[in-house]
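Reposting from the mailing list since nobody answered there.

I have sequence plus structure tokens for a pair of proteins and want to know whether others read the tokens the same way I do. The first protein:
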Amino acid sequence: MSITAAQVKELRERTGAGMMECKKALVETGGDMDAAIEHLRKSGLAKADKKSGRVAAEGVVVSASRGDQAVLVEINCETDFVAKDDNFRRFADQVAELALDHDEVDALLQADLDGGQSVEDTRQQLVAKLGENIQVRRMAHMKSDGALGAYIHGGRIGVLVGVEGADEALARDIAMHVAALNPAYRDAEDVPADVIEKEKQVLVAQAEDSGKPPEIIEKMVTGRLKKHLAEITLTGQPFVKDGDVTVGKLLSGQGASVSGFVRLEVGEGIEKEEADFAAEVMEQARGN
């Protein structure tokens, strides 16, 4: 039978699939619109499954907030090109809003995103449409009785900070600092004892090589350990917008304190493969 341009247009609008895929689906289903939609859905599932093993270390970190709570969500893809795609960005923003009401990624994937379609179904369709592995990797929630600062840097680094006794402007400045200097802990009291002991052992070994007497070595280790703790803690670091004052002094000067913070960066912990760009282009051109 003859498939009209109007049918192809309608199927494309309803599914978001490419024009040629829509025409092929209509031909194979004899022009039955509902059957064509189901055909494209199944095709999307197959493509998503095929691409699921490919490394997705690019993407975005997005945030959403409501009242006294906020969330960060990392959504990955394979290339920076897709990370900038409007469809990918729209999906990420919608998922972030939905993530405010879900504590785990698995539950989020099963949640209704739009008109009865789950996040997972939408993800699979996006894989088929954009041709890359796309994953909702992780998310982090924060709730604060005080000010809640959120900062996204270049779409790749996201930070949430809870600050008591301060306004949102200071909270956002602290979030910006965390994005830039990536402290591992809030303050020295938060650093685990085993982490301190391990660093102390390293410093002792280095100091002993100097050949100085034990009492001098002890002072050297104490001073170096204090410096190290300042470097890895938020309150000990020089404030990114004013290096003459530490974050701790900035906060205490305003009668404020940080209740907690979280930082997500795209691709953290994912081992990236060396890409052959020409081979990738050829593979996508073949429809793989």
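The second protein, same order (residues first, tokens after):
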Amino acid sequence: MSSDIRQAREALGFKLREVRLDAGLSGRSLAGQAGWQASKVSKIELGRQTPTDQDIRVWLEIANAREREPDLVAELRSLESKYVEWRRRIRDGVRARQQEIGRLESGAGRIRSFQCSVIPGLLQIPPYMRERFRRSVDIWGARDDIEEGIKARIKRQDVLYEANVHIVMTEAALRYGTAPREILMEQLDRLSVATSLPRLRLGVIPLRESYAATPLHGFHILEVHTVLVETFAAELTLTQPSEIEIYVKIFDSLAGIARYGREAREVIARVLDDLHAETESRD
């Protein structure tokens, strides 16, 4: 678990403990009146268990502190937003998720993004987007609004002309079978052109480059206040300065070994040549 999430849960538990102590209640007494196991109170207060809305309401009712409910429930909502399962995140469809990310990006004057296995969304062409969204629908059971999602992702790409965007990806991301070969070749042509966009700094890390930090997953840094991290099951939203500092340091390390401009285009061209050769060998 991210320390950002753990600290937020511990902070909420500490506030609930203060409410209990102010009411002159022991943990055992509170648990008894709530009909809980005695250990539940201590787990919540120590940040080992996240309370539900109902837990907080019962807690405050017993402590005669209902006036604290709006603030504490809002804090719980903030905690929950830091770790959101993909099934919940995209249950309203891929368009809603793209619009949500777009709002975050439009408020950022500086965006840094790293991807190790897929082409970043800000640089994807519609056929590639369609492949990625179709897999999201299949895996997480999202509502099938793929075409609307594509329009929303294309709209997100306006930020390439409005903000300072620095994207780094591995050569592996260019080679993985994340889309059919013909689509991937078209996508790489788009990447080659994107290396010349005036407000975009696009770097590609060659396959055999020596890494100071192992590229375990992709991430998205918005300004210096938010990091979005995607895992198989969920998306983490990190806001703790110490954690953001780590991701900035890792991004700088990865960016430092990437190739840019002409050298980036040479890496892309080499991958395209290999894909063309594979296509010809299959014909």
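Reply #1 (J.P.):
I read it the same way you do. The chain has a mean pLDDT of 89.
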